[in-house]
Structure formats: C-alpha cells, structure tokens
Design goal:
Elements lengths: L1 H12 L15 H14 L4 H9 L10 H25 L5 H10 L1 H31 L3 H5 L1 H17 L2 H31 L24 H14 L8 H4 L8 H30 L7 H4 L12 H9 L4 H35 L17 H17 L4 H4 L5 H23 L4 H65 L13 E6 L5 H13 L3 E8 L2 H14 L5 E5 L6 H14 L4 E10 L3 H4 L5 H9 L5 E9 L1 H11 L15 H4 L4 H7 L1
Parallel strand pairs: 1-2, 1-4, 2-3, 4-5
Helix pairs in contact: 2-9, 2-12, 2-15, 3-10, 4-10, 4-12, 4-19, 5-6, 5-18, 6-8, 6-15, 6-16, 6-18, 6-19, 8-15, 8-16, 9-12, 9-14, 9-15, 10-19, 12-14, 14-15, 15-16, 18-19
C-alpha cells in the first residue's frame, strides 16, 4: 500500500524538489502575467455580459447605458491598477493588502482584509469554473447538462497541476492565456474592421429578439438602483487585480519593478478587452435576458441563450467556423485556468497568516514541489462546496462576488494613505516629497473609487446574496482570532519563567506493561532496567483468569527479580484499569515521575494492522494526557517490517541520480548504502 501511494504521488506531483531550488521556481514577467493576471483578464468573458443581463430588466432601451457603465468600471479599474503599483513598491514582501492594513491600520483591519481575500479567492475559483462550464456547454451539450460534475473535475485537475509547483503550472498556463488574448483582441479588431471599414452588416443571432419591458415604475429611483446594480456586476472585472501584490515574492528580481510592469500590462489589456466587448455587443445588436424564458417575446421554440462571447464570435466569424471554435474553446479554457490566480494567491496568503499564527501551522509548510500544498487543498475543497451549493450557476454566484475584494481594496488604500503620511513626517528631501505626494494622490483617488463601489455593492447586492459572503468573512475573522488566542496561550504556557524554576522529580517509578511473556516483553523489561529507575515493576491486566494464572506462573519460574502486579478488570477492559493504576501511583507521590514502557509490534503490511487490536496505540493516546507520566514505546519489528524496509531500498534510479550520488548499487540490492559500505 505504501509503495502504491508513493508511486501515485510521484505520478501526480513528480519528483520532490530540494529546498535550495526555491529560487529556480521564481517567475519571469512573461510567465507571471498568465499566472497572476488570468483571473482579471478572463473576467472580460462574463463581466460585460452581467451588465447586459442586469439592464435587461428595463428592456432594450436600457442597453444604451451599457457603454457609460463600462466607462465607469474602466475608471475604477485604472484607479485600482495605479494604486496597486504603489503598493508593490512599498510592500514587496508578498503580504499585499493584508500587510498594508496590518502595518498601518492595526491587527483587526488586517484580519478583516485577510478574511475578505480568503472568501474572494474561493469565489474566484467557483465563478471562473462555472463560467467555463457555461461556455463549453454551448459546444458540448453533455457539459451543459452536467455542469457541477464538470466543475468538480476541473477543480481537481487544477489542484493537481498546482501541486506540481508554481513555475511548472505557470508554464502550462501561459500558452492558453496568450491564446485567449489573441482570440479576443483578434475578434474585436476583425469585427470592428468589418463594421467600420468594410461597412458590413454584422449582426448577432439574438439581434432581432425583443424583451418585455417592465412597467413605468422602473423610472426614477428604481432605474438608478438598476443602473448601480449593473455597475457593481460589471465591477467583477476588477477581481484578481490584487493577486499580483500578494504574489510579489514569486517574481524574479527586481521583484517590485517586475510586478509593477505586470500590473500595467494587465490594466491595459483588461481595459481594452472589456470596453471592446461592450462596444462590439452594441454594434452587433446582442440581446441578453436575465430570464430568457419569460423576458424574450419572439424567441423561437427551444431557444437557448448563449454567452456573450459565443454570440459575438459567431457573428464576427460568420462563415469561418475555425475562428468561432477557436475563440469559444480558448475562452472556456482561460476561464478554467483563471482559477489559477486564486490557487497562487490563497496558499501564499494562508502561509503568511499561518506564520502570524492566525491559521494552522500546516499552511506554512511547503510540499514536495515547494508549493504550499495544504493551502491548495483547502482552497479546492471550499470551491467544490460552493459549486455544489450553487449548482455551478454564475448568476447565483456573482452577487457573492466583489464584496470581499472591494473590502480589501478600500482598507488597502486607507492604509497606503497612512503609510505616505508617515513617510512625509520622517522628513524627506524635495524630490522624494514630490514622489510621495504623487503616490498619495493616486491612493487617495483609488480610495474614493473603491469606497464608493463598496457602498454601492453593499446596497445593491446585500439581499441578492452578498450577505452570505459577509457572514463567511465574519466567521473566518472570528476563527482566525480564536486560533491566534490558542497559539498565544500555548506559547505563554511553554515559556520559562524565572519565578518558578523547573523542579527535578524526586524518583522515577517505572512500569512495564505485560500481556504475555514473549520477546517484546523481554526487550521492554531489559530496556526499563537499563534506564535504572528508582522503582521498577511489571503490570498485567486480568481479562482472562486462565491466561493470567499461566503468566504469573511463568513469571515466577523465570525469577526476574521484578514484581509482577495483577490489575483486575471485571469488564475486560485494558486501557481504563492501567490508567487508574498509573493515577494511583502518581497520586501517592505527586513529585515522582511515572514512566510506562509499552512493548508493541511493528508490521510491514497494511492488512496486518487489522489483525492486531492496537491496544498499545489506545493506551498511549490516554496516557499522554496524564501529567507527570512519561510514555516509552519499545518496538519489536516482525519479519514483515524488515521486508518492508528492504523493499523501500529497491527503487529504480531517476535520470541523473547515479551521477549525483543519490543512488548506489547497494540500494538496488535492497540494502542501505551505509550498510553495503560497511560490508566492503
């Protein structure tokens, strides 16, 4: 079983990396862009669509406001991009918004940002994968009918790829991401050339459809509320921007400059594709309805509403099916890979929080491939739960989205303003003060934009599902606070104090547990004698009178000079009688230390574990909680365990292992190299 699991692990993950290879996993800009920006870039596949879907409630006339809403989203996006370029220069350690808020606003603000980002990363995976399922469903009906199953499979695949390591997964994702950029930009350019230069009549398949308009009560405040909700839906395009500031340590040197350059490229590409999609949708007359079955008046029987990308690519590449399939396939692929942004951001943030003792220490440990494997697995598990709970429906998940990211945006910009204020107070020269003032103005504008969007999001989305995200953030905040209190309490208990120096025990009372008089018992008895305790005795539990009498007879026959005490067990238990006896010994002399020696078998096959009652394991588990009691396991290796050790050395060398001295002929013959050398 052990060999099978090891082989399976190596098949999925590859060979483990040495710790000194961490520098080789750092990313150049050409790889960092698809790794950290795929989420923000891919959001152009669904953010413009969400604007049209929300406006459809007011009828086709409301679509005329989509370009203006898109421009408002672009202004916010550019402000956030410019602000985060200041962040990566000021805080290049990789803490991102969490570090900025903690350093400048305090621990509670930092925890608020951390909880918001953790929720948003999980939602990023769920939304991206669900949107990919919707796009692929336009080509493959099976996916459309089994979206949840497809999403779970995609998350498992992404998890396996990321467990192989950041550099390796980034290289695998680079080609699809660049293909998506080429596909969308090519579609936009060719579509606008056909319309503007050649004067062709490019129309979408849904151009002739009509939408039922709501009554006049949508005028006034109701209409303003609808426009604001459409704006917040479009702001989903900003998700993923913060991932670069959280992932600065993964860049090659100079880290800050490379991260800032990648942010600039991300902003230019995302803005171009986002606005291009909206303009092309208006030019081709795309009609999107939030509820096609009830809103579309003249839809043909069996009409299925395709996504915005599918409709645009079909209109632009009408008569050229390879272009249509290329755009649709790479869009679906990038939406799957967009979740990779979260798979890189969540584990790094989790590692930082674990280092600060807000999350379990296991999240700070790197796996075989130098990735934060536990964080990756946690993210995948939570994303699967969300996909199942919301049936992989993007429209259901989007209201939960953007809440967390705009909470972190707002607190981050507030923290940066305090950071620049502190820098100015330190007394800088004139050129430095001018640079700081410029950065301060950028962050101030970013704060106004993100705070405004946050207020709008909370007003328009709270009843639509945003309350779920807020509740999750509060729960995570409380959980991280509780974890920190636990670690602080443990550290306080373990800290040495000069007021109460450690007191040496007065005596060592040793107890050897005996079930039968066999070789493991003799080894435990010999080892206990070698420790030279003040008191040494053997203890057996009477669960069978005949067996106990036989044991006592044999014990007296061998004349061990060690008394054997029989503890009665009327209910045939073993653990509780031993525990009670140890407590009595400990209670009679509180300053004594009681050392319990437990002989136990060591087997080499998994099925052999099932044939033994594991009483030693249960005893250890209970005795470890007793103060003043030391537990010593005395192992007795059976023949199968020796064979298991031999099998572990019979491994095949990988390429280069012999040259590097990692494999010897001794290992091929089933012996450790040191043992073979001693024989020679």
């Amino acid at each position: 079983m052990s060999k099978f699991s090891t082989a399976l692990k190596r098949l999925v993950l590859g060979r483990p990396f040495r710790s000194d290879r961490l520098a080789h996993t750092l990313l150049p800009k050409r790889i960092a862009l698809p790794v950290f920006a795929s989420d923000a870039l891919s959001s152009v596949a669904y953010a413009p669509e969400e604007i049209f879907l929300t406006l459809s409630v007011a009828g086709l006339t409301a679509f005329t406001m989509s370009p203006w809403i898109g421009l408002a989203v672009v202004v916010v996006m550019l402000a956030v991009i410019a602000s985060y370029r200041q962040n990566v220069h000021a805080y290049p350690s990789g803490g991102g918004d969490y570090e900025v808020a903690t350093v400048n606003l305090g621990r509670h603000a930092g925890l608020t940002v951390a909880s918001a980002l953790l929720v948003d990363y999980v939602l990023t995976v769920a939304v991206s994968i669900s949107s990919a399922a919707a796009n692929i469903g336009a080509l493959v009906p099976f996916v459309a009918e089994n979206k949840v199953l497809f999403c779970i499979g995609a998350i498992v695949l992404l998890t396996a790829m990321n467990l192989r390591g950041l550099r390796e997964s980034g290289t695998a994702f680079a080609i699809p991401t660049y293909a998506f950029m080429i596909a969308i930009l090519g579609m936009l350019i060719w579509g606008l050339i056909r319309i503007g230069v050649f004067g062709e009549h490019v129309r979408a398949d849904s151009a002739g459809l009509q939408i039922t308009e709501e009554p006049d009560h949508l005028a006034g405040f109701a209409m303003v509320f609808l426009v604001l909700r459409a704006f917040t839906q479009g702001c989903a395009a900003l998700t993923g921007v913060e991932a670069i500031s959280n992932g600065v340590p993964a860049f090659r040197k100079p880290k800050s400059r490379n991260a800032a350059t990648t942010l600039l490229l991300l902003g230019l590409l995302a803005v171009t594709m986002f606005m291009g999609m909206i303009v092309l949708a208006r030019e081709t007359g795309v009609v999107m309805a939030e509820n096609p079955a009830t809103q579309l008046v003249n839809a043909p029987p069996g009409y299925v509403q395709d996504t915005l990308v599918v409709q645009l690519s079909h209109a632009v590449f009408d008569g050229f099916s390879p272009g249509f399939y290329f755009v649709t396939v790479v869009t679906a692929l990038i939406l799957v890979l967009a979740a990779n942004t979260a798979f890189n951001g969540f584990p790094v943030l989790g590692s930082i929080l674990a280092q600060d003792r807000y999350l379990p220490r296991q999240l700070h440990t790197r796996g075989d491939r130098l990735a934060f494997s536990n964080g990756i697995l946690f993210l995948a598990a939570f994303a699967v739960v969300l996909v199942i709970a919301f049936d992989a429906e993007v429209t259901k998940l989007i209201p939960l989205y953007t809440v967390g990211v705009f909470v972190s945006f707002t607190l981050s910009q507030t923290g940066m303003l305090r950071h620049w204020k502190r820098k100015l107070a330190e007394g800088q020269d004139v050129p430095a003060r001018r640079r700081i003032r410029r950065s301060q103005a950028i962050n101030a504008f970013g704060l106004v934009m993100t705070a405004t969007v946050l207020v709008i999001v909370l007003i328009t989305k709270f009843s639509k599902g945003a309350w779920i995200a807020i509740a999750a953030m509060v729960a995570i905040f409380l959980l991280m606070s509780a974890i920190r209190r636990h670690y602080d309490r443990v550290a306080e208990e373990l800290q040495e104090t000069s007021e109460k120096p450690p007191m040496l025990p007065s005596r060592n009372h040793a107890i050897v547990l005996v079930s039968k008089l066999h070789l493991p018992t003799l080894r435990a008895l010999a080892y206990a004698k070698a420790v030279r305790p003040d008191v040494l005795e053997a203890v057996t539990v009477n669960v069978d009178d005949a067996e106990t009498r036989k044991l006592v007879t044999e014990w007296d026959k061998h004349d061990f000079k060690v008394p054997l005490k029989v503890v009665e067990s009327p209910y045939r238990e073993i653990t509780k009688p031993v525990l009670d006896y140890v407590k009595r010994v400990r209670g009679d002399n509180p300053r004594n230390v009681v050392t319990v020696f437990i002989p136990e078998y060591v087997v080499g096959r998994w099925w052999e574990q099932l044939l033994h009652n594991q009483s030693a394991l249960r005893l250890k588990g209970r005795l470890l909680f007793q103060p003043g009691v030391m537990v010593t396991s005395v192992p007795w290796q059976l023949a199968s365990s020796a064979k298991a050790v031999k099998r572990s050395y019979q491994t095949r060398p990988a390429a280069g292992d012999v040259r590097r001295g990692l494999y010897t002929a001794a290992q091929g013959q089933g012996k450790p190299a040191a043992e073979k050398k001693s024989e020679q």
